[in-house]
Amino acid sequence: MSKVVSLQCLRCGTHCPADYRGTGCAKCTGELSSNLRAQYDPEQVRAWSFGSSAGRVRSLWQFADMLPVDAGDAVSLGEGGTPLLAAGNIGKQLGLDNLYVKDETRNPTQSYKDRVSTVAVSYARQLGAPVVATASSGNAGASLAAYAARAGMPCVVVSMKGAAGPILTQIRKLGAHLVVMDDKLQRWPLLAAAVERHNWFVTSPYSAPVVGSTPIGIEGYKTIAYEIFQDLGRAPDWMAMPVCYGDALSGIYQGFVDLKQAGVIRTIPRFVAAEAHGSLTQALDSGADTVAAAAVKFNSLAASVGAAQSAFQALQSLRNSNGVAVPVNNDGLVGMQESVAAQEGLFLELASVMPFIAVRQLREANIIGKNDLVVCLATASGLKDTDKSTADFDELPITALPVDDVLEDVVAVLNHQRSSVTAARLK
Ligand SMILES: [Zn+2]
Predict the structure, then answer these.
(1) Strands 373-378, 238-242: parallel, antiparallel or unpaired by DSSP?
(2) How far does the centroid of ligand 1 lie from the alpha carbon of residue 289, in Å?
(3) What pTM did the predictor assign?
(4) Residue 426 located in a structural domain
(5) Distance 9 CA to ligand 1 centre (A)
(6) What is the 42 CA–ligand 1 centroid distance (Å)?
(7) How do residues 113-162 score in pLDDT, each as one tens digit?
(8) How many A from CA of 417 to the centre of ligand 1?
(9) In this structure, what CATH number is given to the domain that contains residue 385?
């Protein structure tokens, strides 16, 4: 059975039973609401080994000792073990000598949410939950649908109007039951009622103010930190990622805490939260211990991180890591997506390029140094939100010219591009 011995509140430290099915700490309510963290037997924690990667399978489940479920009980599609790529070209553009991209688009459903789903669905199956469900019509919904299909469990995804088209297609093709609510505020009450009456296992948040996703699933994110350590042999100086409710931020932070407690790294990286609306920036600036909805709201193209309010778990990880939050609006988002794609061969969703913009700002302000080792987390594939990222595309002309003329035109365009690149390099 599960190795989790209890769930502990991130804010007040109160423990509750491992199989507690509420969302967040029962004592910390209202604006003080807080998520919980899975706790393990301290004897087992002392035995955790993060040694050499030699001989280990490149999979999230190589770290099963540090996860709630044993590898033999895992519902797996081959997630984790994603590459950490040196990104010298885009690094040069941002003024950084040591920029890396952790490419999470290589996961089974092309997003980092698979690290949550593999752990959460494995756990839900062990519990005997009749249904898994989420209020996400984004990457989390597509990922949960895939792992539920793999486990042979029914999956309900509660969506709203305006979700990204390609992801909705992914969810439907994976066989989940998709419910689109006219009033998006009714999504969480629907799931709360389903937990109460039908014992569904819900992976997303479903109560306000938001605390974050199921703490069991968030455990999966720790493996991102473990893998980065395996590849670098050290912790990066900076760890930058797009942030909404802060599940990944909180999970990856805990992963580095585990590595530090095991004595294999000396310092925890400073985290950079690239957020759309600025609720974390607001809280950090004011010294608040709670996260309020951002004062400025707009329609972010980065649909994956579109919520205007983050959660306490994100604020706490940022504070504890001496991190920073950077609001990133729509300006230059599509341009950065195309820069990263054309210069590094990485086609990332719009939310995934927000960290590059945040890091550029921090470099310009000399908060990040030229030689600092920076890892940007590429959370999901650019195929996920093409309906948002290609609005400015011209329709491609169809040519009826003879082959010789077409070839001549193409060569002329390539020569022009090459001479502009050379001119730019000589500058
Ligand atoms: Zn509490």
Answers:
(1) parallel
(2) 13
(3) 0.96
(4) yes
(5) 5
(6) 21
(7) 999 999 999 999 999 999 999 998 789 999 999 999 999 999 999 988 77
(8) 58
(9) 3.40.50.1100
